[in-house]
Amino acid sequence: MHLLKDIAVDDHSRARVAIHVNPDGSMAVDAAIGFSESSIKLAVQKRARWVVNHVVEARDRYAHVRPKEYVSGEQVLYLGRRYVLKVVPVDKAVVVVRLKGNRLEVQSTSGNPDDIKGRIRAWYRVKGRDYLARRMNTLTQTLPWSKSPPPFRLLEMSSRWGSGSPAGEIILNPHLIKAPRNCIDYVLIHEMAHLRHHDHSPEFWKLIDAHAGDWRKAKYHLDALVEVLISE
Ligand SMILES: [Zn+2]
After folding, report:
1. What integer is the mean pLDDT of 42-65?
2. What is the spatial distance between Cα 81 and Cα 27, in angstroms, rounded to a whole number?
C-alpha cells in the first residue's frame, strides 16, 4: 500500500497507469505489463497539472516537519498517542527504554542523539513486531480467506506502508507502529486482502468494504499524518 495519494489513469482498455506522489515529493509510476514507454509518458502528461500540484504540496508539507534532535521534551508517537521523550542519563552497561505514563523514558550512558535515536528505533521495531503479529493473529479470525496469520517482516520503505510478496509474505513499514490503531488495522487488512487478490480489482475492494470497517476514515487519517509518521 502506497504512502500517499495515488490515482489510476485509465486507458481505453483494462490496462492502467497509476501515478503516486510520495511524501517527500518524489513520484513513482506503476504501469501494467505491456504498456509502452510512450503510452506511459502520455498518461503522465495527461495528468501533468495533478502531478505538479501534488509534488509541490508534498514538498511543502515535508519541509515543515522538523527533524528530531532526540532531546528530552520532544514528542514521540506510539500507536497514535503522543509521548514526551525523557532522556535519562545512566552509567551502567544495560540500559532500558520504557513507556512510563505519558513519557517514553530512554536511558543512555552518553546522551548522544545518535545513541538515543538508535535506541528508539530498536524499541519501535521490537514493539512493532510484537503488536503487528498479535493484530494479524486477531484479524485472521475475522477474515474468512485468511486461514492462518501470514508471515511478515519489517522493512523501512520510503514510499509504502506495506506490500505482499507472491510467496504470501507481507512486508510492513516499521514506522506504522506510530500510527493510530484503526490506521494500522486498515493497512494490515489491505495487505492481507492482497494475498487473495493481488491487484486493486473491484473484487479486492469488495473484500475491503466488507471487512475493513470505516476504512476511508482510517486512510484519510493515515494520509494526513504521513509526514509526521515517517519523519525520524
Ligand atoms: Zn494495495
Report:
1. 82
2. 30
Ligand 1 centroid–CA 162 distance in Å is 8
Please tell me the distance from the alpha carbon of residue 184 to that of residue 176, in angstroms, as a whole number. Answer: 7
Whether 70 is in a domain gets the answer no
Q: Compute the half-sphere exposure of residue 72: CA atoms within 13 Å on the CB side of its CA.
A: 9
In a domain, residue 46? The reply is: yes
Q: 7: pLDDT confidence band, cut at 50, 70 and 90? A: low
Per-residue DSSP letter, 174: G
The domain of 59 spans 6-63
* Cα of 199 from ligand 1 centre, angstroms: 7
Q: How many domains does the chain have?
A: 2
User: Sign (positive/negative) of CA torsion 79, 63, 122, 2?
Assistant: positive
The torsion angles phi and psi of 177, rounded to 5 degrees, stand at -65, -15
Residues 54-76: pLDDT tens digits?
888 877 777 777 788 999 999 99
Band the pLDDT of 93: cuts 50, 70, 90: confident
Taking the centre of ligand 1 as the mean of its atom positions, its distance from the CA of residue 217, in whole angstroms, is 16
For the chain, report the end-to-end CA distance as a whole number of angstroms.
20
Say how many Å lie between the CA of residue 200 and the centre of ligand 1. 6
pLDDT confidence of residue 14: 47
Query: Are residues 145 and 191 located together in one domain of the fold?
Result: yes
Handedness of CA 215, 202, 173, 192 (dihedral sign): positive
In angstroms, what is the span from residue 205 Cα to ligand 1's centroid? Answer: 9
Please tell me whether residues 176 and 86 are part of one structural domain.
yes
